[in-house]
Specification:
Strand order of the largest sheet: 2-7-1-8-9
Pathway: Metabolic intermediate biosynthesis; 5-phospho-alpha-D-ribose 1-diphosphate biosynthesis; 5-phospho-alpha-D-ribose 1-diphosphate from D-ribose 5-phosphate (route II): step 3/3
Protein name: Ribose 1,5-bisphosphate phosphokinase PhnN
Order of helices and strands: EHEEEHEEHEHEHHEHH
GO molecular function, one term: ribose 1,5-bisphosphate phosphokinase activity
CATH class: Alpha Beta
GO biological process, one term: 5-phosphoribose 1-diphosphate biosynthetic process
CATH architecture: 3-Layer(aba) Sandwich
CATH topology: Rossmann fold
InterPro entries: GK/Ca_channel_bsu, P-loop_NTPase, PhnN
Number of strands: 9
């Protein structure tokens, strides 16, 4: 495949979701990038909550049927929910695009074995992580300390680039954008744009054309 699969990971409080949202908005008009829309066995109304992910909802039965039919490039279960990345991302990568997907660390080794995977690791000092988690007001100080003590490791052999998010959200977003654009550098926007019929937009993975 000519394109790449990029996933952004980070510890709780690293600000991954904030930076991803900023990157999605900044790159909306850049044809080199596609942000995969996850399928989740979570009700559609959950998308209306502040900060909720805009996902494609399915029931567990629908998800299992889709999985059995080969609809997902990658899928996993976490926190009692099923998550899937639509197989449409493979078409985008064949055509040279950079697909940005929110993946579980549990499927990174599988993704690296099948695709040209790049991992962007959002980092921040422990004190910054603790302050951000405390600002959410969801956990006690003891719970925050326990969470920070559970450092998740990445599988060996991955192509990883660190993105420091220890300043303002704008600074962190600028660093993430620079890292994403570095991945896409071999694919000039004009080369991809020439592949589209006039007036057509790139479809989002999991959504039909037209």
């Amino acid at each position: 495949m000519a394109g790449s699969l990029v996933t952004v990971v980070g510890a709780s409080g690293a600000g991954k979701d904030t930076l991803l949202g900023a990157a999605r908005a900044a790159l909306a008009a850049d044809p080199r990038f596609v942000f995969a829309r996850r399928v989740i066995t979570r009700p559609a109304e959950a998308r209306n909550h502040p900060g909720a992910e805009d996902h494609s909802p399915m029931t567990e039965a629908e998800f299992e049927a889709a999985r059995a039919d080969g609809a997902f490039a990658l899928h996993w279960r976490a926190h009692g929910l099923c998550y899937g990345i639509p197989r449409a991302i493979e078409r985008d990568m064949v055509e040279g695009r950079v697909v940005v997907a929110n993946l579980s660390r549990t499927v990174l080794a599988e993704a690296a074995a099948r695709y040209r995977l790049r991992v962007l690791l959002v980092t921040a000092p422990p004190a910054v992580l603790a302050a951000r988690l405390a600002g959410r007001g969801r956990e006690s100080a003891a719970e925050i300390a326990l969470r920070l003590g559970r450092e998740a490791t990445l599988p060996e052999g991955l192509a990883v680039r660190e993105v420091a998010n220890d300043g303002t959200p704008e600074e962190g977003a600028a660093r993430l954008l620079a890292a994403l654009r570095a991945v896409a550098a071999p694919f000039p926007p004009e080369r991809l744009a020439d592949r589209l019929p006039p007036g057509k937009a790139f479809p989002e993975p999991g959504r039909p054309n037209g």
